[in-house]
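queue> pop job 88
queue> type: inverse folding (structure -> sequence)
queue> payload:
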């Protein structure tokens, strides 16, 4: 497998040195969710220098939740390379969000940062309002933000955790999409982030798995509902990826073996999944709706 060469410039704004991607990770843990990308060791790779944009999203406006870091950041950068202006919804990870904004602007596009709590319907409506005030339109909506908490069994899940997971992982998708929908025109695209766990049923992620399964069904139903309006709705199902949700939700020991249980024997880097979002958001995916694309290192799933 060819390994790309990256630089720390994309993170820190100044050239340090070239280094090859690391596919294993030292034990580490963060104490809260959302996690912080700038604290991860090694830093995730969100930008593939060999990916050259060709204008597939030229002058389109994309809202990306959780776009400050992880998969959301990689998608924001890939969209910017393809010519889109970016709106990043995030909670309070300001350092990570500013890094993403800087990289998007380095690729010649505008980036609007909107911090706040997606669990609040009013905040979802505010995101749409600010996007329209800034860019005048919405062409792409990427519902991506999520939380996950590991629990050994159902009885160990506090009621408050169950409700929080649903509020962030699926209720926010509903509220933001509902707010954006009156402003989406024919040719618009909605891309939802689900997960491999929805198809295999991870026993220690019952609430997270349930919400990700709901996203799959939500995507299919909404796609059928909107198809006659020319609005496409699809989903992406990542497997294990090196993103802040990992050290923020798992034990330090689990991080050292992240991805070792899939056929490729490694976790993915965020840049490896971003082109799939480009496909679904662009005219390249014009005959695709109601679909879920799996990017998971070869794990077997039943669709």
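queue> result:
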């Amino acid at each position: 497998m060819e390994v790309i060469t990256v630089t720390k410039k994309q993170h820190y704004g100044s050239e340090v040195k070239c280094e090859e991607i690391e596919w294993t990770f030292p034990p580490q843990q963060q104490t809260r969710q959302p996690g912080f990308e700038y604290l991860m060791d090694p830093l995730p790779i969100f930008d593939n220098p060999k990916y050259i944009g060709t204008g597939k999203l030229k002058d389109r406006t994309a809202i990306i939740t959780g776009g400050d870091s992880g998969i959301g950041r990689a998608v924001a950068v890939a969209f910017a390379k393809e010519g889109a202006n970016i709106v990043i919804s995030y909670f309070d990870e300001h350092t990570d969000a500013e890094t993403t904004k800087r990289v998007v602007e380095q690729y010649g596009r505008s980036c609007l940062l909107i911090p706040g709590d997606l669990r609040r319907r009013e905040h979802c409506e505010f995101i749409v309002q600010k996007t329209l005030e800034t860019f005048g339109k919405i062409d792409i909506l990427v519902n991506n933000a999520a939380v996950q908490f590991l629990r050994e069994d159902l009885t160990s899940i506090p009621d408050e955790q169950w409700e929080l997971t649903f509020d962030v992982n699926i209720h926010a998708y509903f509220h933001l999409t509902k707010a954006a929908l009156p402003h989406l025109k024919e040719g618009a695209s909605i891309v939802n982030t689900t997960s491999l766990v929805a198809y295999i049923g991870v026993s220690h992620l019952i609430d997270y798995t349930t919400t990700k399964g709901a996203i799959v069904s939500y995507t299919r139903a909404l796609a059928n509902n909107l198809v006659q309006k020319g609005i496409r709705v699809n989903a992406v199902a990542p497997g294990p990826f090196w993103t802040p949700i990992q050290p923020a939700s798992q034990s330090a020991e689990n991080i050292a073996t992240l991805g070792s249980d899939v056929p490729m024997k490694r976790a993915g880097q965020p840049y490896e999944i971003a082109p799939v979002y480009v496909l679904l958001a662009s005219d390249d995916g014009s005959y695709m709706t109601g679909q879920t694309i799996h990017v998971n290192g070869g794990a077997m799933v039943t669709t």
